[in-house]
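Q:
Got a chain?
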Amino acid sequence: MRLSGNAELKKDVKEKCPICGAESELHVLPYEIPHFGDALMFIATCSSCGYRYTDVMILSGEKRRKYELEISSAQDLNVTVARSSFGKIEIPELGVSVEPRRGEAFISTVEGVLKRVEEVVKMLSRDVTGGKKKRAEHILKQIERIKSGEATMTLIIDDPSGNSAIISEKAKIIVY
């Protein structure tokens, strides 16, 4: 993944923050994503309240796509993942489903996705007890096993806008 040569698409715009109304910044950055094409990354930040919004738009005009990748080695943790704000993430082995939300797009790696899941599980498990606490502990142990190569998992991203991707030759791609 690299910054695209389309410098004319790079824009920095001042706008009103949707949370506090102060002046915020919107950065539009062109990217070229291997095996996927040109994309735009939108990053909005507000220095007054800390609001942050990110999104990714693939410029190829693709249709709905679903990606599936079996994570079976430490190398698979380095696979690039681009998730638009329309992409639903699933990890069936962990019982994890992350519904799409506006402003939660990212470009990361499989390990980065696992870290996000781990952070949410830790946060949600702070105030629970009993079975829910044990379930959270089990998920966290399973994540560690996946990271160390002792366990496998399937990463699924389903995006009706076609703007998400798992960039790997091993990924199965279903176009609707």
